[in-house]
Amino acid sequence: MLPAAPLPAEAPETAAAPAPDACPNCAGALLAGAGYCPHCGQPRPHRLSTAHVLHEILHVFTHADKSIFGFVGQVLTRPARVVADYLAGRRKRYFNPFQFLLLAVGVATVLAVQLHYYERIGEQVQQAMRAHGAPAAVLARVGQYFHAVGKFFNVWWLALMPVHALIVWAAYRRRLNYAESFFLLVIVGSAFQLYLILALVSVFLVVGLEPGSSTALMQATVYVGYLTWIGRGSLGLSWPRAVGSALVISVLVGAINYGLNWLVFWGYVMHFRVPG
């Protein structure tokens, strides 16, 4: 009978700590005197300090390379260049556009909620419907509807982006695939959100104008202008083609937004019934 084979040594529960001259992120060898790992690019590690954390936070907002503030200027004043660079693979110089859009939509939503922007639109609708004899239950649902619109504006707006991107792709399908069309919409949508933030703070809060349907008009204006700009500067379209495509996209996007909003409003508030 053969003797039993020796059992293998138990594997350690945790991996051994990297050598002092190895990168703790990828375990690659660190070059003497180098500030970064040559394999993964992580800076040479050191113990966190308050000064380091503050520097990193300040770096995100103010550093010329890939800063949020820098990207604001690039989106507003050089959207065609941003799109052209991104489509050509020159992306490292820019702050993450998708992350930026999420931040911008979040800021716009918080402002709208704090200013009760959509709730005040709801009050105007309630007054108009009350003048036509709408019952109290219907008026209450109007208020609930506009409260939800303001609270979940970011979810609603972002959920519609894939549908809007289909329209962009249909207009530019000879030059862009669907993913590239979605990215183009991210840049144009970021510009709109920045103008919306500015309008909420300056026009509504400072000047004190009553809210209304001006945000839809603003979105249409921004979309036509920026899509024309990008069509000419990034996609090489002629002026008639650039303007025409921008107009078609903006009209269809607005029609989808209005149609879905009307359908949800009529279904929730009126239960699809014509008032008697």
Automatic annotation (TrEMBL):
It comes from the Bacteria. InterPro entries: DUF3667. The keyword Transmembrane applies. Keywords: Membrane, Transmembrane, Transmembrane helix. The chain crosses the membrane at residues 100-118, 155-172, 184-207, 213-230, 242-269. This is DUF3667 domain-containing protein. Pfam families: DUF3667 (PF12412).
